[in-house]
């Protein structure tokens, strides 16, 4: 990740947005089967939603609102894992590597949201 003068060393807003962008790019390379078209629509929604809800969480009006938004982020990230899993790459090596990378990234982001939740509910 590149670092701006005003950014934190590791910006989760940027990371979640990048995850959504990478999911969008991954979908472009999938074969246009009926199932992939439907899973792609869902992946676009869930990956974008986790990024958007994280932005909303950072602008939350209360702690309760913040926790609610982070729970949505975690849920949407977990859902992204499912759509990635169900996507058919037809064992094309580059698509398979992208899929694995995105699945790993989704798991890491979900763990971060879980950690944020655990610290916020205390």
From TrEMBL:
Pfam families: 23S_rRNA_IVP. Signal peptide: none annotated. This is Four helix bundle protein. The lineage of its organism: Bacteria, Candidatus Staskawicziibacteriota. It comes from the Bacteria. Gene3D superfamilies: 23S rRNA-intervening sequence (1.20.1440.60).
């Amino acid at each position: 990740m590149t670092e701006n003068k005003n950014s934190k060393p590791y910006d989760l807003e940027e990371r979640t947005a990048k995850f959504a962008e990478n999911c969008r790019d991954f979908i472009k390379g999938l074969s246009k089967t009926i199932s992939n078209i439907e899973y792609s629509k869902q992946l676009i929604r869930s990956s974008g939603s986790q990024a958007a809800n994280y932005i909303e969480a950072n602008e939350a009006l209360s702690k309760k609102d913040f926790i609610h938004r982070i729970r949505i982020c975690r849920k949407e990230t977990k859902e992204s894992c499912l759509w990635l899993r169900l996507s058919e790459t037809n064992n094309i090596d580059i698509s398979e590597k992208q899929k694995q990378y995105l699945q790993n990234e989704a798991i890491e982001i979900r763990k971060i949201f879980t950690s944020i939740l655990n610290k916020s509910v205390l």
